[in-house]
Amino acid sequence: MFVDELTPIVKELSGQPIAFLGGLFSGLFRLNLSDDPVKTWLDRQAGKSDSEASNTPDQNNQNSGPQTISIE
């Protein structure tokens, strides 16, 4: 009975062990993937340059307030 509950966890662990253990590690230590040390490391692993990684949608859209539109 207890083995049936652990079967999905074992399948995920055997399918993608690095991703599973990374998620388990970040969950145990309550790491936020948006924080600077983790985010820069993830960006380097993904192959993004520093200029691509620093541009967020909030920085790109300077006029983020309400906008008016006209419908004809």
Task: Explain the overall architecture.
- This protein has about 70 residues and is mainly α.
- The protein has a domain at about 10-50.
- About 65% of the residues lie in helices and about 0% in strands.
- The chain has helices at about 1-15, 15-30, 35-45, 50-55, 55-60.
- The longest helix has 14 residues, at about 1-15.
- It starts with a helix and ends in a 12-residue tail after the last helix.
List the main descriptive attributes of the protein structure presented here.
mainly alpha, 5 helices, 72 residues
Q: Total number of β-strand segments? A: 0
Radius of gyration: 20 Å
Main sheet makeup: none
Overall shape: elongated
Q: Which secondary-structure class do the elements indicate?
A: mainly alpha
Instruction: Report the total helices.
Output: 5
Order of helices and strands: HHHHH
Could you tell me the strand content as a percent range?
under 5%
Q: Name the poorly predicted regions.
A: none
